[in-house]
Amino acid sequence: MRFVIVTGMSGAGKSSVLKMLEDAGYFCVDNLPVPLLPKFAELVSGTEAGAVPKAALGIDIRSGEGLATVNKVLESLAALGIQYEILYLDCDDGVLIKRYKETRRQHPLAAHGRIEDGISSERKKMHFLKQRADYIIDTSQMLVRDLKGEVDKIFVKNEPYRNFYMTVLSFGFKYGIPADADLVFDVRFLPNPYYEENLKKKTGNDKEVQDYVMNCKEAEIFLNKIEDLLTFLVPQYIKEGKNQLVIGIGCTGGKHRSVTITNELFRRFEERNYSIKAEHRDISNDQRRNKSE
């Protein structure tokens, strides 16, 4: 029997995850009063009639005063021999504020105040659950399909979970530096395929452009130095509790050099002990602009 407690920041995606788990065959209950948690766990774990093979329970700040008793309740589950896993969904404050404004929903702790204050208060009250979590997923930069992929890896495919999420993001400086980037690297020192007539309309996803950029010895040296830097930095970030890193790789238009280097960096880190994805923010900007003209 698998018993999962889904918790985290309001607006980080808990309801979505419970729906995903339900679709995957889990029996799901959201916002159950905390005092009823042991009884629910007994029912689904098989110690009483009505056991189910997979169950998930949502707990969040809406539990109110009951939240303060969660630690004792979890200890009682352990005493009963009931095994459980905690999934904590986190998200940057700025993204949470944006989501609340877009949906026009009230934050549970900010009915008569500012959303920012409600988020700050919630983060403090939920911190103990984050510390107890078996899995932490930061949804700040995730699309729904990305979140579903992570949930499926852990709770459907039973793959080893990588509790650190790295995004390598190519971009064009002429379109602005990504606001969410933690680290930014400028690759405009590399030869520009844009000035080669046969490469101008291609991108860093095309082998011809990749070969052109990587045939420059400085490109290989640069990648080696970034790899060495990140190999040092990532464990330090993890040690300090950071679970997500966005690395911006920029060139002039975000189409050739930055895309090539982003793909190469992704390839080098793909098999490390954390999740990584490559995104190309501005790769289609020229095509979109040409269509509108």
Structure notes:
The chain has 293 residues and is α/β, with parallel strands linked by helices. The chain folds into 2 domains: 2-155, 3-Layer(aba) Sandwich (Rossmann fold), CATH 3.40.50.300; 165-292, no CATH class. Helix content is 42%, strand content 18%. It is built from 10 helices and 9 strands. It has helices at 14-23, 37-45, 70-79, 93-103, 115-132, 144-155, 207-214, 217-239, 257-269, 285-292; strands at residues 2-8, 27-30, 54-58, 85-90, 135-138, 165-172, 183-186, 244-251, 275-280. It has a 5-stranded parallel beta sheet with strand order 2-3-1-4-5, with helices on both faces. A 4-stranded parallel beta sheet has the order 7-8-6-9, covered by helices on one side. α2 (37-45) links the parallel β2 (27-30) and β3 (54-58). α1 crosses α6. The longest helix has 23 residues, at 217-239. It is elongated, with a radius of gyration of 23 Å. The relative contact order is 0.13. The model is unreliable at 288-293 (pLDDT under 50).
